[in-house]
Design a protein that fits this description.
single chain; alpha/beta; Arc Repressor Mutant, subunit A; six-stranded parallel sheet; 22 strands; about 45% helix; about 15% strand; elongated
């Protein structure tokens, strides 16, 4: 049965390592802790058993964009799913919660802050839940690289549904993080743990030191063919590097969170379909993307942590074929730890946020606001990079949740079929719009459906502006609820605005120390010249491997040097044998060793003479039998 589902929905005839055992554990009602590397097929480990079990599977995931990607992929496979998050209106959430109660979906994706709301706690007791999933489970740990305090609330739900098992998944967790996952998510004593090696034998890790990164990047892209990702640290740099590559006739596009949703969708689609070979992006790109044939991932700047680097570099070679992970490290780059904001800086920043959204004291908890970081920094004269760091830190300190909502235009018909028909008769000018919507989308009477304005407008042969006006008219006449799309970032405040801001000093210090340690580890990785690069990464994740990878730049240099040394030893031994019992001319020495370059042979002969291993008489060479070997 499991293999049939795998073939039917995913088109695979066999499971990847550990997948089958994990699925059986979930189906048998066991709590499970799963650590699989990036690209290791974690999603199938819960999506397939969700289809096999009765009820709905609740999946807690940290990013709205990731949830949307997963739901979109599932819908394409014909699997009913929905994402509930802070970007939805209260009406949308209420409608979808009723649909969940009625068994409309097999998988429901939820943002972690949903677990702490009383409304959700009231609903969860009534839902027929198959099992719980906590994706990116390292977020539950203060030792993890993406600590999210709202993840701690998920474990509390288990007291409300004690008989429902849970599967926690992560790609990056050391022992301390795994211990926290077990503790905070209240995994049962008989839970099963699954993990595979972080090693990816088809990846070649390389560090490049060059003071002209763009010249070197162009050279690399000319040598390594195939689909590529170039990660950069800023939006501006994404556009600049893309433009420079384009001027050198490289098929390229750029991607960052500053682009609107439609632009990002087109860019992502062009890259996935190989219409564009290279995508230059900030770390906003890649989460949820499973393109198997990426041959090259370049990091133009040193990432902030080994976890980030492992995840992003790991998007290369998911088809198992040889691929390259290249990190640029400028010659003059040194480690510095001045970027972490101080406590007073954090307090000033969040006060600016409260003022930006005009939040009164003791107000704001649980409210979501649109947020434009560039506009915010201009208003308060704050450095952009410092503001971004402060925003991420406030998220880890539990003050807020920062998301990209990525709304699409959505509608829901709020009258019954008969009233809709009556309205169509009375408003003939809107009849074609209503018919086009009904023919294009199912479920319009049940819940909010994302629609594509451009597609519908073409069907009714009107402009997008005219269609939007028609939808606004239907909305004002209470025939539909129309929610225009938005691609703004959002901030949800998890606490009310206090009269005095108190920072948890212990947590702040821990986050600061960890951030600096992770950053320094990446700089040390970049400057390492003696240890196997993959093993250096594995060591961070507490996986100690005796054998070197043999693929990274350091291993290949060692192999090359070893090979050269071995060849030299073999050549000397052969020359000794040839000249030991008689005099030999140089051309005979060269012609006797056709496997070697003639200049290399002459160089070795010269070295042997200088060190008195060979003696030369009348242009003939003989071995010095008195010289110690």
């Amino acid at each position: 049965m499991l293999e049939e589902l795998l073939i039917k929905y995913w088109g695979h005839r066999s499971f990847r390592p550990k997948q089958h055992d994990i699925i059986l554990s979930v189906l048998n009602g066991k709590d499970s802790l799963v650590q699989l590397p990036t690209g290791g097929g974690k999603s199938v480990c819960y999506q397939l058993p969700a289809l096999a079990k009765e009820g709905v599977c609740l999946v807690f995931s940290p990013l709205i964009a990731l949830m949307k990607d997963q739901v979109d992929n599932l819908k394409q496979l014909g699997i009913s799913s929905i994402a509930i998050h802070s970007g939805l209106t209260s009406n949308e959430i209420e409608v979808e919660m009723q649909n969940i109660l009625n068994g409309k979906y097999k998988l429901v994706y939820l943002s972690p802050e949903r677990a702490s709301t009383q409304l959700f706690k009231n609903y969860i007791k009534q839902i027929n839940i198959s099992f719980l999933v906590v994706d990116e489970a390292h977020c539950v740990s203060q030792w993890g690289h993406q600590f999210r305090p709202e993840y701690l609330k998920i474990g509390e739900l288990r007291t409300l549904i004690p008989n429902v098992n849970l599967i926690a998944l992560t790609a990056t967790a050391n022992k301390a993080v795994k211990d926290d996952i077990v503790s905070y998510l209240k995994l049962q004593n008989d839970f099963q743990s699954f993990e595979t090696s972080f090693r990816r034998s088809n990846l070649n890790y390389i560090v490049v030191k060059d003071n002209n990164n763009i010249r070197k990047l162009i050279s690399i892209l000319s040598k390594i063919k195939g689909s590529s990702i170039v990660y950069v640290s800023t939006r501006k740099k994404a556009e600049e590097v893309s433009d420079l590559l384009k001027k050198n006739d490289i098929s390229v596009c750029y991607y960052h969170a500053g682009l609107d949703m439609k632009q990002r969708e087109v860019i992502q689609s062009n890259w996935i379909s190989n219409k564009k070979r290279v995508i230059v992006s900030t770390n906003a790109f890649g989460m949820g993307i499973d393109k198997p044939d990426v041959r090259l991932v370049v990091h133009y700047d040193i990432p902030s942590s080994p976890e980030s680097y492992y995840q992003e570099a790991g998007r290369a070679g998911r088809d198992g074929l040889k691929s390259y992970c290249i990190l640029f490290s400028n010659q003059d780059q040194n480690f510095h730890n001045t970027e972490f904001p101080g406590i007073e800086q954090i307090k000033h920043f969040i006060n600016c946020l409260y003022n930006y959204h005009q939040i009164a004291f003791t107000a704001g908890k649980g409210i979501t606001y649109n947020f434009d970081l560039i506009d915010f920094t201009k208003n308060f004269n704050l450095p952009f990079k410092s503001a971004l760091t402060s925003l991420n830190l406030l998220e880890s300190l539990g003050f807020l949740s920062n998301q990209n909502s990525n709304h699409q235009d959505k509608i829901k018909i709020i009258v019954n079929h008969e009233d809709l028909y009556t309205y169509q008769v009375k408003h003939a000018n809107l009849d074609s719009v209503i018919k086009a919507l009904l023919r294009s989308y199912t479920g319009l009477f049940d819940h909010y459906i994302p629609i594509q304005i451009g597609v519908v407008s073409k069907k009714i042969k009107s402009s997008t502006k005219q269609l939007i006006q028609a939808l606004e008219k239907l909305n004002s006449d209470s025939i539909i609820e129309y929610i225009p799309k938005s691609s703004d970032n959002t901030i949800t405040y998890l606490k009310s605005r206090p009269t005095k801001i108190n920072i948890d000093i212990t947590l702040y210090t821990q986050l600061k120390n960890q951030t600096e340690y992770r950053k320094k580890y990446m700089f040390d990785y970049a400057n390492n010249t003696s240890s196997c690069r993959e093993n250096y990464l594995l060591k961070y994740f507490e996986e100690i491997v005796q054998e070197n990878c043999g693929n990274c730049d350091i291993c290949r240099n060692k192999n090359k040097n070893f090979s050269s040394k071995k060849n030299k030893e073999l050549l000397i031994s052969s020359i000794k044998e040839l000249t030991f019992e008689g005099e030999v001319e140089i051309h005979n020495i060269v012609s006797s060793h056709t496997a070697y370059d003639s200049q290399e042979i002459i160089s070795i002969v010269k070295w042997l003479m200088e060190n008195q291993y060979l003696l030369k008489t009348n242009n003939k060479y003989t071995w010095n039998t008195k010289q110690k070997s």
